[in-house]
Specification:
Layout: E1 3-9, E2 18-20, E3 22-26, E4 30-31, E5 44-48, H1 49-56, E6 72-75, E7 87-90, E8 93-100, H2 110-115, H3 120-123, E9 125-131, E10 133-136, E11 141-144
Parallel strand pairs: 5-6
Antiparallel strand pairs: 1-2, 1-6, 3-4, 3-10, 5-9, 7-8, 7-11, 8-9
Length: about 160
């Protein structure tokens, strides 16, 4: 079963995210209280715990949730293989994948500088919130094959 391992936010851009007990997702906005929220295509970032384990195996054993500025850490789902447009049921919320990966910071993040690689450019994914609610560690994640989105949701 795929599940949420942790949820993470940051109140300012450019700083590491910290783990919180739960997050509130608002449609077409993202996470209430997170610096990256807004009406754009990268409202939520997700990263698989398996991807972080890859970096830990390179000697970065201190990595904890939020180290890559991700909002949701997952387990048991191959995020990087999901096509853009995939609908994900995360707890009571519905997300739509809008982007796979993103360029590392211009000079490379601290993790890239330490190891020569970073997982977010190829393994992190981004999504918009279609149906809001609350998400917390332990919530189930499922791919929704065909979903009807309520009127007023889904535009980006």
């Amino acid at each position: 079963m795929a599940k949420v391992v942790s949820v993470n936010i940051s109140e300012k851009k450019g700083v590491r995210k910290h783990t919180v007990e739960s997050i509130e997702l608002r449609p077409q906005w993202g996470i209430v209280g997170d610096a990256h929220a807004g009406n754009w295509h990268r409202q939520i970032s997700l990263l698989a715990e398996e991807s972080i384990d890859t970096m830990r195996s390179l000697g970065l054993s201190h990595l904890s949730p939020g180290a890559f500025a991700e909002n949701i850490n997952t387990e048991g789902i191959d995020l990087k293989s999901l096509p853009v447009g995939t609908m994900l049921r995360v707890g009571e919320c519905l997300l739509q994948v809008t982007q796979i990966g993103k360029e590392c910071h211009q000079d490379g993040c601290a993790i890239f500088k330490a190891t020569g690689q970073c997982v977010m450019p190829t393994e992190g994914i981004f999504a918009v919130v279609l149906i809001g609610g609350h998400v917390r560690g332990g919530d189930r994640i499922a791919i929704e094959p065909e979903t009807t989105v309520p009127a007023g949701h889904g535009e980006t």
